[in-house]
Structures are given as C-alpha cells and as structure tokens.
C-alpha cells in the first residue's frame, strides 16, 4: 500500500556528551514511516537524551537527524513531543484545556492569541484521550494517569506525523495505559510514526512493532520479532561494565 | 496644608499603585518559575548602576537613574547565569553573591560620591531606603510610563510567558525562541523592580514581587485571574500603604505597604476557599496537607497491603526507588515521613508505615478517588 | 594598635567568623537565608534596644539570635503548608519582619542613634570608638571582642559537630536514617548564622554579612574537593578579602564594608576564571586539548561500527567522513591526522580503517552503563 519508502526518521552518528561524560555515542537509527518503536535500555542509557537530542532540545556533539528525507528543523510541526510527567511542575494555575491548547502555539505567531479554532482542536484531542469531561479541571488536581493523557493530547493537537514520548506509561494506572496504547495504535493505523521511551520490557512485543536497544550505544534496532532476543537484552542490560574514562565534553567541535 | 498633603499623597499613591501593578503582574511569573528571590537580588544589584549614573552624568533625574539601575540589574542577572552554567556554584549562592557584591560595590561608589562638596548623595540614598514621600510628579510620570509599557508587553507576550513558565522545553520543541523570551522576561522584571526602588527601597522590593503573587495563587487556579489579582493586590497595597502612612505620623511608606501586603498574604493563606488552612482544618482535621502528596508513603502502603498479616513487614529503599520516578529523592521523603510520624524503621534499613501513616494513606486514597471521578 | 589596624583586625575576624557557617549554607543550597536572617533580625534588635536603651547590651545579641531562629521557623512553617514554594517563603517572611523593625525605629527611636542607615550599612570606621572597658581598663574595640568570641564559638561548635554537620549537609536522608537529628543541626546552624549576623551588624551592616557568608565559601567551593579543606580555604579567602578590601578602602577613602564585599566578589571572579580544573580557563584548555582526543575516539567508534557493514565502503571513505560525522572538513582532516599519528587507523585505498590498536581503543571507550 505505502508506495513512499522514505523513513519517517533517520538518525546518523548522533553523539551527545555532558561535561566529561558521553551519554550517547554514534547512534544510527532508521524509523520506518507508520512504525511504533520502543526505545529500551537501563537507567542512564541515554534514552531520554536520544529523544531530546533528535529534536534539538539538547546540543549534540556530532550527528545528523533527517525527517522524511530532509534535515530536521524545530518548529516545522514534524515532531510532537510528550515529555516525562515528572519533569513538570503540576501546581501551575491552569486547566486541562489550556495545557492542551498550548500545543497549538507553534502554529500561532508571536502576538496572536489562541481562539475558538485552536480550542476546538484541543477539545477534539482531549476526546481522543477520553478526557473530554476534564476540560476545566485545574491540572494541580489531576492524577498521574490523567496528567499523562493531558500531555498526550497536547501532542496530538499538533497533528504532527511523528510523535516522541518519554516514558508515558511510568506510574499510570491500567486503564490509562490501555487508553494510551489505543491512541498509539490508532495513530499508527493512520500512518503516523510513534517513538516511545519505554521502561517495561514485558509489554514491548505486545505494544510495539520495532525496538531500539540502547545503552549509550545503539546495541541493536529493528523489528521486535528479530531484535528483541535474550542475547540482545543481556548485552543491553547486563553487559560488560565499563567506565568511560576521561572523555571530555565538547558541545561542538572546534 | 491640606492641599499640599493631598497633592503629595496623590503622587505617592499613584506611584505606589503603578509599582504594585507592575511588580505584582510580573512577580506572578517569577513566582511560578521559582525565581521569587530574583527581585531581591535585582533591587540590591541596582545600586552601583544608580551611583554610576550620577558619577558620570551628575544627573539625579528619574529616567537616567532608572536606566542605570536597570543596566546594573541586567548585568547581575547575566553574571548569575554565567556562574550557574559554567561552575558547580548553586543558583542561590550565585544570586546571593550578585546581590551582596554588587550592592557592596554600590556602597563604595556612594561613599565616593559622598565626598563631593555638594552633598549630592542625599537624593540617591532615597533609593536605598525608599522615601516615597520624596517622590515627585516627574518620578511618577516615568514610573507610570515604564510600568504601563511593561504591562502591555506582558499582555502581548502572554502565551509565550505562560509557555516559558510552565514547560519551557515543550516551547523549545515547538520551535519558539525560549532563551530569548527568558531574556525579555528578565528585562521586564528588572524594569518593574527599578520602578519600585524609590518607593519602597531596596530591602522591601522583594516583597512587592513575591507577596501579591503568593496571595493571588491561593485565591485562584487559573493564570489570568492570578496575574490580574496579583496586580490588583499590588495596587491596593500600594495605595493603602501610602494613605495609611500619610495619616499616621512617623509611619514610613515602604514598610507600611509591605505590612499591608503581608496581611493580605496571611489572610489568603488562611481563608482561601478550597485550599487555605482554615478549609484544610475543617475538611481534614489538621493543617498538614493530605498524604496524597507523598508518593513514597503511598508506595510503602501499597507494599504493606501485600502483607496484610504482618504490619511491620518492612521494605528497603531500593524497592521504593524503583517505584518512584527517576531522580526522586526517596531518602529525603522518608526522613520527612519519619519526622511526621508516618513511617518507622523496622529493622536493617527497612521501612513500614506506622498505624497513623496507614490511616493517612487510606484517607488520601479516598480523597483522590473523590477528585478524579 | 592604631585605629586602622584595629579596623583591620575586626574586619578579618568578622570575615572568618562569617565564612564558617556560610560554608554550610552554600553547600546546603540555602545561601539566601543569610540575606533573610540578616535583615529579619532588625525587629529583635529594636525591641531589645527599647528595653535596655543600651546599644551595647548583650540582650541585643540574644534577642536578635532568637529573632533569627524565629525567622527560620516561620519560613519553614510556611513551606510546610505546601501552599508556597521555598524561595517565595523566604521572600515573604523577611521583608515583613524588616518592615516591622523599620516602623518600630521610626515610631519609637527616631531620636536615638539607631537609624536604618547604620542598620543596613554599618560603618567599620566607627568601630574603634566603641571600647570595651573593664574596670576602667581599655581592652580594645568592643567589636573585636564580640566578633572574636563569636568566631571562637563558631569554630568550636563546628569542630564538635563536625561529623553530624557533614552528614546532614551532604546527605540529609542518610543522616535521618542513621538517627542523627538533622533538625537540631539545622536550627543550630541557623542560630549560628543569626548570632554572627548580629555581632557583625554594628560594624559591617547586614549586606556585608551576606557577602562574607557566601562569597568566600563559594570561592573555596571552586578550589577544594573535600569539606575540611573547603572550610579552611573559605576562612583564608575571607581573611584575604577583608585585608584587600580594607587596603582598598583606606587608599580610596570609601566605605570599608562595601570595599570588602567588592574584594570578596573579585576574589570569586578570579577563582571562577583561573581555578585549576574548575575555572573557565582550565575548562577551555581541557576542552580544546581533549576535543581532538574525543574526536579521535569518535572517529574510531564510527569506523568500528561501520567496518563490517555493507555501507562500509561509503561510511569509511575518507573523503566522505566529514559528512557522516557532521564535522567540518578541516577538523576531520586534523582528527584523521592525529589518529594516524597514533597508529590508530590505517588507510586502504580510499578507505580509512581502524588498526587493531584503534579497534581496542574504540571497544574500551564505549561500553555503556550497567545498573
């Protein structure tokens, strides 16, 4: 059916280092369009960093990211980001609808306010995550699962072809997890590409088409059935322990 | 005499009102961004700017002085940012150093000015201690113009500042220039602080930025009302403080404004509907917030549920850490809970909820299910 | 001693006395509390003054110390309500207390020497005029004695509670787990800060106290790796700042307190730039030297990675390397050259391949973390 074979995202030689510590090394990754990919690895493996670096939210020392064959540029509405819940201060005075509407800010210019059009789009996104009734709820009163769905809706409203989610299932209840999985499935059916940093190995084969095994280096990536083997997992999670000795941080080469 | 004091009062009240509005509105965002003390630092750091302007130009006119103050404050924020980015010195130390060192340098300049034959620094010192009574029409005009400009810019950049304060990284992912916005916000805050120096003085400027926001936050759950309310509280306190201090002999304006503000803050903390301490006392029976805010207790409780016949079956920190988000300070939470009598140690580095802790957890679960249904 | 030297002595003693508790404030990330306390103790001093009508009464010290602790108690109570974040709590409490103090002065004491100028700014220049006379004998400036005692008490307390302080500062959670009472430590520290601030008030004013509590320890933080050396360095740097400031003030005839604050700031700036390892200059040097090294390793890993793959011909072709790595051509040439120099790569036609040594280096370089 799909004629165009251009992968949704191609990452080449991506390397990120924070002061004196390389966090990602020479990552190559190809994500086919319409794929649901999981990124798994131990703590400190650089999973969140990979997402952020691919989106240009943290500086990388080397490497290149292409989206649908073209070099990636922020702000073109190509990638929608769902950050970790815990990275936000939820005691902020605003309501659910407002947060989701923030997803439309990319399409508004400097001085334009979000209007009814934007708010309706936000409402539609909220319906998709079955949070339509919570429009006016202050976000400080949300449970973990609800918070997660709000962040997902905020990404959905951008209607981007690619979504990147950072540990969306961390600490959410089962109904929320099912709801999110349903949304991701729907997105994939529509041809959108979904990349998820995932912490629960057990559900990888069930939820995802392909997987990237990451531990500072890309151990292996590809279809789950081929790549998600015990050997590979052992390599990723329990492999040789090395200390990355005196490697300097460079934000960009000289 | 009546006419004179009326006029002065009008001037002072207007100036205080403008200051209250600008500081209150911008302070709301600083409050939400956990930058409340920047106001304090900025007001101290402004001193060398004021002194330098006088030294170099001999002028004590409000506009050049405010520009000098703003520039000095701006440089201070740049210095803080630089130190935090490039060294292990923590943010609060960098802020405190900027505050004290810049101010100290300002003192040096002030005493240098003091040696001049024209006893010139008398006017300048009003910036230190806030002599609102010395405000002139000229000052208030400049203050009003600058204050209004700040508020207009705030309105124009409303959604950008909201994004900046709530989820700057997300804004970055949308391609918005978050760093530039941060700079603009800081600039506006600097201007708001500088406006207020003459009225309330260096030390009390911190309150003008923090207090209206703190009070407003208790009274509403939405941003626009919060900012509006903060501005209104700022204006109210400014004007009331000015009026009160004019009615009572030997009552300086700045401190009076601050006390009015503080009273409002205390009242809103106690009486805020749905959130204040009085409400909490009535609803929950005590002043501590519900344990629902403490995930570690909930985890321990959940774990304890798996051993219903062994109330003192303990679990270790490692398990708790796995259950908590990455980077969560589990030990700190445990210490907190220990101090509050909600958990206790049950052996070799193992923890369990106390009976009180179990009751709290049950109560919190009940409260949660009420909220989310 | 001449008055100038007495001033110097007072300045140095004050600086060192402040640096001691200040070190812990910096490490515990509660530096701004020093600003809060040094302002908030004003009403305590004023009330005590009203009661004793004596600026030199020890009651002032006591009242101020109590007010300082009260300040901290109020701040923490506010934080504990969970209605106001930590930084805002600080920014709410101290201006209110300070305002009360100023109003008290204005209403009750405008005829006496307690005026806001002195309170905020202090003036070391006048300190020698307050003598401590016991039984008619002049023992020197009172400020020197009071700050001296404070210095000794601070030092002794810190030595006695060394272990507990270190643990509570570095790892509060662990301290609690081990049964230390971090709360006592915490309030003890705050009391020390209050007493020091009060003692220094008269001579140097509140702002300098803040400068002295934060800047020298922050400077030491850039230079030391362990707590003991850090405190020692903080004390020395504090003293140095006092000397420099004093000298500068004498030479230029300006505010001594302001001069000392400025000098302390300058010392920090110098360390910020020039500290070995942590200074900006050292960082830049390390970066440039190791950029090349890092680049070589990245090159090797890249080559290793693609060596056996079908794209090897493309990925390892020298001419295209800069594109794959996202580097500038000139930089790529330097890195390749360096790698060749160290016999880490060899050329085979158009391709660049790792040698055995290079392969080993690449293998070692990146293995990843395990739990």
* Main sheet characteristics of chain A: 6 strands, mixed
How does the helix and strand content of chain A classify structurally? alpha/beta
How far apart the termini of chain C lie comes to 64 Å
SSE order of chain A, one letter for each helix or strand:
EEEHEEEHHHEHEHEEHH
Instruction: Tell me, rounded to a whole number, the average pLDDT of chain A.
Output: 85
Low-confidence stretches of chain A: 239-254
* Lateral arrangement of strands in the main beta sheet of chain C: 1-2
If helices are DSSP runs of H or I spanning 4 or more residues, what is the number of helices of chain C? 17
Number of strands of chain A: 10
Helix segment tally of chain A: 8
How can the largest sheet of chain C be summarized?
A: 2 strands, antiparallel
Q: How helix-rich are the residues of chain C, as a percent range?
A: over 70%
Task: Describe the protein.
The complex is a heterotrimer of chains A (about 250), B (about 375) and C (about 375). Chain A has about 250 residues and is of the alpha/beta class. Helix content of chain A is about 30%, strand content about 25%. In chain A, a hairpin with a 2-residue loop joins strand 4 and strand 5. The N and C termini of chain B lie far apart (about 65 Å). Chain C is mainly alpha-helical. In chain C, the strands form 2 sheets. Chain C has a two-stranded antiparallel sheet with strand order 1-2. In chain C, strand 3 and strand 4 form a beta hairpin. Chains in contact: A-B, A-C, B-C. Chains B and C meet through helix 2, helix 5, helix 6, helix 10 and helix 12 of B and helix 2, helix 5, helix 6, helix 9 and helix 10 of C.
Summarize the structure in short.
The complex is a heterotrimer of chains A (254), B (373) and C (371). Helix content of chain A is 29%, strand content 24%. Chain A has 254 residues and is of the alpha/beta class.
